[in-house]
TrEMBL record:
Gene3D superfamilies, per the entry: NAD(P)-binding Rossmann-like Domain
Species annotation: Luteibacter jiangsuensis
Family indicated by similarity: Belongs to the short-chain dehydrogenases/reductases (SDR) family.
InterPro entries, per the entry: NAD(P)-bd_dom_sf (IPR036291), SDR_fam (IPR002347)
Entries under PANTHER family matching the protein: DEHYDROGENASE/REDUCTASE SDR FAMILY MEMBER 7B (PTHR44196), SHORT-CHAIN DEHYDROGENASE-RELATED (PTHR44196:SF2)
Protein's recorded name: Short-subunit dehydrogenase
Keyword terms of this UniProt record: Oxidoreductase
Length: 270
């Protein structure tokens, strides 16, 4: 057993979650890695243990399970494993118009992207405060700062929720040693767009719009250490956020509608 601080990373099997795991290990943190794909988690944990001499525990879990967060925290408590850093990264996209998807699809999405991160923070926060140290990183998105688009009905809404939730937790954590940050990347190289079936469409975006996952993770951890409640990754994304903030709501919505048609997969992309 090591004496390092321990981090829990959700959605750690690929993309931004994997990048957070790698960066945390590089900084000397022990890890608890959770996602659905146990084989990927095991391979990543083995690599990070060997490369960084840290402890890496695998906890395969589908956070769409309503009892998932409670069961995970209970298992950690039973092993005497405290969590000092929580990275709420697990997420995905659901394409198509809202009423064209069955309700269980939306319910699972809300569970994974909103309910699970909220519950994990709720269950781990008391221990962080008691120990006088904690870091909570909620992986949101630039999408949470701009109007919602058609065909991805709940995505921007869920990310906007994480931003507001993080701001409140950041204020409540002042003086306790617990920092909370909403990290808001834009287009990031990962499997996300392959899963949603929009890879071909988003590949039309110019190269300067994209960031790599490792940079997003490094900047996110630096931001939470600095006590920033919200951090938007990348200068281009910060400019976009600022422009939309200055626009009248009607104009901003029309712009999102026009751009959304170009990068939306499915029958409503005309």
């Amino acid at each position: 057993m090591t004496s390092n601080r321990r981090a829990l990373v959700t959605g750690a099997s690929a993309g931004i979650g994997e990048a957070f795991a790698r960066e945390l290990a590089r900084r000397g943190h022990d890890l608890v890695l959770t996602a659905r794909r146990a084989d990927r988690l095991e391979a990543l944990a083995k690599e990070l243990r060997e490369r960084h001499a840290i402890e890496a525990i695998v906890a395969p879990l589908d956070l769409a399970r309503r009892d998932g967060p409670e069961a995970l925290v209970a298992a950690l408590d039973a092993q005497g494993l405290s969590i000092d850093v929580l990275v709420n990264n697990a997420g995905y996209g659901v394409t198509g118009y809202f009423d064209e998807q069955p309700w269980p699809t939306h319910a699972a999405f809300i569970q994974v992207l909103m309910t699970a991160p909220t519950e994990l923070a709720y269950r781990l926060l008391p221990g962080m405060k008691a120990r006088g140290y904690g870091r909570i990183v909620n992986v949101a998105s630039l999408a949470g700062h701009v109007p919602g688009s058609a065909g991805h009905t709940l995505y921007a809404a869920s990310k906007a929720y994480l931003i507001k939730f993080s701001q409140s937790l950041a204020l409540e954590g002042k003086g306790t040693g617990v920092h909370t940050t909403a990290v808001c990347p834009g287009f990031t190289y990962s499997e996300f767009h392959d899963v949603t079936g929009s890879r071909e469409l988003v590949s039309k975006m110019p190269g300067f719009m994209w960031m790599d996952a490792q940079t997003v993770a490094r900047q996110g951890l630096d931001a939470v250490e600095a006590g920033k409640a919200v951090y938007v990754n990348g200068g281009v994304n910060r400019v976009i956020k600022g422009l939309f903030k200055l626009m009248p709501d009607g104009l901003a919505l029309k712009m999102v509608e026009r751009q959304g048609r170009r990068f939306r997969a499915g029958p409503h992309n005309a």
